[in-house]
């Protein structure tokens, strides 16, 4: 999804954009591009982005869960200027659709729901 679409900004609304299985991708990727005072956000699977020459050239070589790193510049005229701070690539790989919540928060939610159901069932029979 792209931030120009409703519900796809910094706060992702999964009701509007259901989870997508990234299949062979190692990471979910969130690209944050600063344009003036605004931030444009793109979310996609690593394998989809790597099909694009632009992303293959810009995506940082170091990719780890939880890392947000600046894009590479690859400027032949300025070889010492290696990073583009206006474009950030963020990576996660703990579950598909992981660009919106952490693994811990999703586990806490599941545990809370299960414990609420158990509590309700026990109290109903007392």
From TrEMBL:
Protein name, entry field: Protein sleepless
One BP annotation, GO: regulation of synaptic transmission, cholinergic
Keyword Signal on entry: yes
Keyword Hydrolase: no
Alphabetical keyword list: Glycoprotein, Signal
Alphabetical list of InterPro entries matching this protein: QVR-like, Sleep_regulator
Domain of life, per lineage: Eukaryota
Lineage of producing organism: Eukaryota, Metazoa, Spiralia, Lophotrochozoa, Mollusca
